[in-house]
Amino acid sequence: MADVFTTTPHKWNFTASPSAYLYATQLPLPTPPVGMKIPQSTHDATYWARVTKGLDFSDADGVDPLLYNRILWRGMMHNLPYPPSLSLRDKRACDEDDNAATLPTKGLRERQQHYRTINGQNK
Predict the structure, then answer these.
(1) Residues 12, 10: Cα–Cα separation, whole Å
(2) How many CB atoms lie within 10 A of CB 116?
(3) Using the 8-state DSSP alphabet, how is residue 108 labeled?
(4) Could you tell me the maximum CA-CA distance found in the chain, to the nearest angstrom?
(5) I need a surface site. Which of 20, 31, 104, 121 has the fewest CB within 10 A?
(6) Number of C-alpha atoms within 13 angstroms, CB side, residue 37?
(7) Which residues contact 102 (CB under 8 A, 6 or more apart)?
(8) Rg (CA), the chain
(9) Of the candidates 29, 57, 25, which has an alpha carbon nearest to the alpha carbon of residue 44?
(10) CB neighbours of residue 94 within 10 Å
């Protein structure tokens, strides 16, 4: 592993560029590249505000990733079924790679309840 690191810094550059989706908004952005196709969002801001209401975006780890993935899937893929879950063995391998202690601890029932509520399935 140590072979990929060096104690001698090398000069490099990085120029950030906004997502093409952002060009469909009113944000003050640089001129889009010539020929850029600007995709249209699947829903307007009101929809996304409604389905993400109550999520904590103040910190990168503040949003339950399982819930957020389902919200994004539903909003972008409409009625296509959500991909099957990883096996327990695969989940354990992912947890070992990630620092599982930093993941949100919101329970499965609470995530499911929120998902049903934002999709109008609670009566």
Answers:
(1) 6
(2) 12
(3) H
(4) 62
(5) 31
(6) 2
(7) 61
(8) 19
(9) 25
(10) 11
